[in-house]
């Protein structure tokens, strides 16, 4: 069992395998329409969502799984019930949990207590599903991540962090331009530098 809480826990081969599988499913959808038959996926969304909620919900149904959505008031992680209790309880009924929350620590605590895979649908630290979709699009259009140079303009937020990890692990070329005082955390930059040395990636972060 693997959780998907942040891309930094995945190797280049694992990320590429996920992307190639997604492309294969997209191109041969009929062959996978019942691959999750008999499974049930829970969606816990503490933060509002349009695209991410729709993508996960419809994606589960299209692959043959059942899907149940929990609104913020139904669970109230850490308030109405302890995160560990919610995680353990849902693991008895569900086969996977998709969690969109404010604090990344909630994702980590939830995953530690879960016997089923936990997928990060956005936290304040990471947004792996968004970036996997971005990388998949580049693979579909260009065939090779290293054939393009990508520039990100904005603050060092969750999407930025996930992009940095993805390119550093896969070996791509990325320039991130953030306003002063809105750059990614030093911890992220240090880890990205470490990954880049291994993959020979070209990842630069500059002030805009």
What does this protein look like?
The chain has 208 residues and is of the alpha/beta class. Helix content is 44%, strand content 17%. The protein contains 8 helices and 7 strands; from the N terminus they run H-E-H-E-H-H-E-H-E-H-E-H-E-H-E. Strands 2-1-3-4 form a 4-stranded parallel sheet, sandwiched between helices. Helix 1 crosses helix 6 and helix 4 packs across helix 5.
Strands of the largest sheet, in order across it? 2-1-3-4
The count of β-strands is 7
What is the share of helical residues? 40-55%
Major β-sheet annotation: 4 strands, parallel
Distance between the termini: 41 Å
Q: Please state roughly what percent of the residues sit in beta strands, choosing from under 5%, 5-15%, 15-25%, 25-35%, 35-45% or over 45%.
A: 15-25%
List the helices and strands and how they pair.
Elements: H1 12-27, E1 40-45, H2 51-62, E2 66-70, H3 72-75, H4 83-91, E3 96-100, H5 104-112, E4 118-120, H6 128-142, E5 149-153, H7 158-170, E6 173-178, H8 186-199, E7 202-207
Parallel strand pairs: 1-2, 1-3, 3-4, 5-6, 6-7
Helix pairs in contact: 1-6, 4-5, 6-7, 7-8
Q: How would you briefly describe this protein structure?
A:
This protein has 208 residues and is an alpha/beta fold. 44% of the residues lie in helices and 17% in strands.
List keywords for this structure.
208 residues, alpha/beta, 4-stranded parallel beta sheet, 3-stranded parallel beta sheet, 7 strands, 17% strand
């Amino acid at each position: 069992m693997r959780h998907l809480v942040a891309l930094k826990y995945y190797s280049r081969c694992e990320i590429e395998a996920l992307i190639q599988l997604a492309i294969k499913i997209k191109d041969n959808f009929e062959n996978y329409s019942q691959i999750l038959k008999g499974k049930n996926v829970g969606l816990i969304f503490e933060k509002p969502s349009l695209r991410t909620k729709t993508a996960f919900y419809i994606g589960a149904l299209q692959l043959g799984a059942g899907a149940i959505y929990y609104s913020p008031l139904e669970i109230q992680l850490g308030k109405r019930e302890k995160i560990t209790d919610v995680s353990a309880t849902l693991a008895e009924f569900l086969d996977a949990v998709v969690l969109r929350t404010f604090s990344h620590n909630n994702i980590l605590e939830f995953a530690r207590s879960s016997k089923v895979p936990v997928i990060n649908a956005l936290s304040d630290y990471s947004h792996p599903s968004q970036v996997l979709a971005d990388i998949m699009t580049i693979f579909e259009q260009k065939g090779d991540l290293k054939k393009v140079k990508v520039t990100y303009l904005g603050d060092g937020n969750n999407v930025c962090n996930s992009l940095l990890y993805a390119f550093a692990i896969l070996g791509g070329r990325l320039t991130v331009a953030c306003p002063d005082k809105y750059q990614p955390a030093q911890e992220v930059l240090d880890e990205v530098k470490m990954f880049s040395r291994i993959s020979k990636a070209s990842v630069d972060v500059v002030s805009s």
